[in-house]
């Protein structure tokens, strides 16, 4: 998004988007919409994913993963374990989990 500030060494995952004027102090996982000062997650970037020819099933799977991470009130480690067990076969989910595991600054929550 325009005028978004990203702190040094923060990562923005593939297919993510930020709202205008966002301030990103932690990593933004792939496939997310983030906005605010400081940036918070606002769901999956469905419009961007559709533009990139993601199927409805793939987007639905990413939404389920998002719910586990952000809506289940699990700590990060437990959420990652649950995502791997329940959704581990999908390559996009693997990309998502790998990003979470390699985050050094933490992720927006």
Termini separation (Å)? 19 Å
Q: What proportion of the residues is helical, as a percent range?
A: 40-55%
Biggest sheet statistics: 3 strands, mixed
Mean pLDDT, to the nearest integer, reads 96
Give the overall silhouette: globular
* Contiguous helical run count: 4
**How would you write the strand order of the largest sheet?**
2-4-5
Radius of gyration (CA) equals 13 Å
Order of helices and strands: EEEEEHHHH
By DSSP, the count of extended strands is 5
Which class best fits the helix and strand makeup?
Answer: alpha/beta
pLDDT below 50 for ≥5 consecutive residues: which ranges?
none
- Beta content comes to 5-15%
List keywords for this structure.
single chain; 109 residues; alpha/beta; 3-stranded mixed beta sheet; two-stranded parallel ribbon; 4 helices; 5 strands; 40% helix
Q: What is the topological layout?
A:
Blueprint: E1 5-6, E2 17-18, E3 23-24, E4 32-35, E5 40-44, H1 46-51, H2 56-70, H3 76-87, H4 91-101
Parallel strand pairs: 1-3, 2-4
Antiparallel strand pairs: 4-5
Helix pairs in contact: 2-3, 3-4
């Amino acid at each position: 998004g325009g005028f978004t500030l990203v702190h040094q060494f923060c990562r923005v995952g593939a297919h993510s988007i930020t709202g205008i004027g966002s301030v990103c102090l932690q990593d933004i996982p792939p496939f997310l919409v983030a906005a605010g000062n400081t940036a918070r997650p606002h769901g999956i970037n469905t419009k961007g994913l559709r533009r990139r020819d993601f199927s409805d099933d793939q987007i639905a799977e990413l939404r389920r993963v998002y719910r586990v991470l952000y809506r289940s009130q699990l700590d990060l480690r437990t959420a990652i374990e649950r995502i791997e067990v329940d959704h581990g076969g999908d390559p996009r989910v693997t990309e998502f989990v790998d990003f979470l595991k390699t985050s050094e600054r933490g992720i927006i929550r």
